Amino acid sequence: MKALIYDGPNEIRWDDHPDPGLIDDTDIIMKVTTTTICGSDTHIIKGGVPDTPHGTVLGHEGVGVVEETGAAVRNVAPGDRVIATCVTACGFCRFCTAQQYGQCLNGGWALGHFIDGTQAEYTRVPYAQNSVYPIPEELSDEQVLFLTDILATGYEVGVLAGNVGPGDTVAIVGAGPVGLSTVLSAQLFSPGNIIAIDLVESRRRKALELGADYAVAPEQAHELVNDLTDGLGADVTIEAAGFPAPFELAADLVRSGGRIANIGVHEEPVSLALDKLWAKQITLTTGIPSALSIPSLMNAIIAGTLDATTLISHRMPLEDMENGYDTFSRAAETNALKVVLAA
Ligand SMILES: [Zn+2]
Ligand SMILES: [Zn+2]
Question: Looking at the 3D structure of the chain, how many domains does it have?
Answer without folding.
Answer: 2
